[in-house]
Amino acid sequence: MSTTAEPAAVDRGAERVPVRGLTVLYDARCGLCAFLREWLGRQRQLVPLEFVAAGSEEARRLFPSLDHGGTLEEITVVGDGGQVYRGAAAWIVCLWALREHRPLAHRLSTPAGARLARGAVLAAAKWRGAQWRPGGAGTGSGAASQGWVYDRRYGWVHRPADGCDSGTCATR
After folding, report:
1. What's the pTM value of the predicted model, to 2 decimals?
2. Over its length of 172 residues, how does the chain's per-residue pLDDT go in tens digits?
3. 24 with 14: CB under 8 angstroms?
């Protein structure tokens, strides 16, 4: 009987791997996301940032194991060493990559700062959700014509034009 224990998990050494580049997956159909992508791109970078439209063929080719539906819901940043950051952590690592904003990123990485960063991400998501128009951006079909109505209490809700929202109508 051997007394040597096998490691429970293989350590990839992610904490020791330097980050030399980051790929930011952003929703190209979102005005706020496009604005922030442009802003990030204009900043002086200590770590190079590459930008790829979330859910695109390029994103799927570069990162086949990612949940690409999830990348459209929440900002995702992938480090060149395989690190994956989502939500507030993704924003913090983007700031960390910027020369003038690295000190802010360090403050936001503390427990108190992380709460502030999460609040900012939630506020941006709420604004983004209020700007989103169901029915497909750029398709020429309006939200109302697709049965989507904005309700201040609940956000966007689907109410079909035929009034069949009781759940007893035939499915298509």
Report:
1. 0.65
2. 434 443 433 444 556 678 899 999 998 888 788 888 998 999 999 999 999 999 999 999 999 999 998 898 888 999 999 899 998 899 999 999 999 999 999 998 888 888 887 777 777 766 666 665 544 443 333 444 445 555 556 555 656 655 555 555 555 4
3. no
Q: How far apart are CA 165 and CA 162, in angstroms?
A: 8
Please calculate the CA angle 84-117-31 and round it to the nearest 5 degrees.
80
CA atoms of 19 and 80, how far apart (whole Å): 6
CA 57 to chain centroid, in Å, comes to: 17
Q: Which of 125, 123, 117, 98 is nearest to 30 (CA)?
A: 125
Beta bridge partners of 94: none
In three-state secondary structure terms, 57 is helix
DSSP 118: H
157 residue type, one letter: V
Cβ contact 148:157 at 8 Å: yes
Distance from first CA to last CA of the chain, Å, rounded? 63
Q: Which residues pair with 49 in a beta bridge?
A: 22
